[in-house]
Amino acid sequence: MLCKAPKSKLPTAAWIAPFPNSPHDFVQILVHNTDFLLHNGGMENLTKSIADRELEPLLVPRFVKYAECWTESNRHVADTPSTPGQWDLAKMLRDELVGLGLEAELTDHCYVIARLQASPGLENVAAIGFLAHVDTAADVTGKNVKPQIVRNYDGGKIVIAEGLVLDPEKEPGLTDQKGGSLIHADGSTLLGADDKAGIASIMAAVEYMVKHPEIKHGPVELIFSPDEETGKGLPEFPREKIKSRACYTLDGGPMGEIEVECFNAWKAEVDFHGKVIHVGAARGILANAVLMASSFATMLPRSESPEATDGYYGYYCPMEISGNLEHAKIELFLRDFESEGIKRRVDALGAIAWAVEAQFPGGKVDLRPSAQYRNMKEEIDKHPEVLAKLQNALDNLDIPWELKPIRGGTDGARLTQMGIPTPNIFTGGRNYHSRLEWVSVGEMCAACRVVIELARLWGG
Asked: Residues 274, 433: contact at Cβ < 8 Å?
């Protein structure tokens, strides 16, 4: 569903005032009318009027600097953060925020938490928050990222590297960038727009608000988190430090996409214990753990894999397989939008494990499923004003919006479970976790304006 706000009309009462008899009277009328606009819905026009040329200098250098930080996380490491590089970006963000005059801290587990003080008179308004994650996925290396900026894009093919081409005929949304700017990597790495585009958009919006106090807002909290890509779900997060009534993650895709629902996510670790003997004397005795794991993987329904599903269809996805004759292991992700769907998938794994044991006498399969995060929709639905404010912000900015399910997860899902409803907002990125990843500079600017407008709307 695409929705766009109708053109709003300025209330005529805003301009009812006596004709000025002196310069002093004129100033008083101007102050009166400006005050009316600030408190009666006119400020959205000021937010909408923030030009890309004002935001790009705050956005693009930041994004490039953040993308060059090696913050790839590692789901095999239990510590938070799972990799040392995430500290580098977290410290950089803390120092930038302090430099902008905000209160900012870096916790023992690499969470950056900062507060933008309310405009005078709005100190008692409920705080809201904005959240993005500092790590990048390990699916493609994020070391030595070299962002390439394409300015005044001509609408044609972009050759990134040998065999890697951004083709507008195959890339939805690429032709929309004609005449604008976009950023991609050099083909040897991912770009890291997931989620450094979100970080840069938040940071640029905050700097703009600091420099433009005429934009009135209540207290704003900023959270930058580690290890989102590992699916841990905010481990060691200091919930007690957060006062926000609502929060918004900036961790989405094309402009206008907003999300209030995500997968229920489970992980399954499956161990295969074989029975070993010399392969020359194996007849009737050997239970090969490598074959057991392979057999298990091939029994997963191909029609319920990530590459065969979209929309609201869930999936099974083997993430890693390793082993030898005696012991093999599969790490498996289960995703479904419905709780009953997850239960069905866990039960199916149990049946497959039993079938593998039946094929390999003497072998044993140990299945250990565990929850990662839950669909956030049910909790967000209990707080309709949180989504309504977001939709209102987009309408005020004339950004057509579309509600879509997240085929993945964000830290917003876990924060929602902790009692802070947290929808997700677009950042303008595409092809996440791949060497063809790119981000629209214009859409990042739009995300900045959404942050500013939300801060204004929640300020009342």
From this structure: no
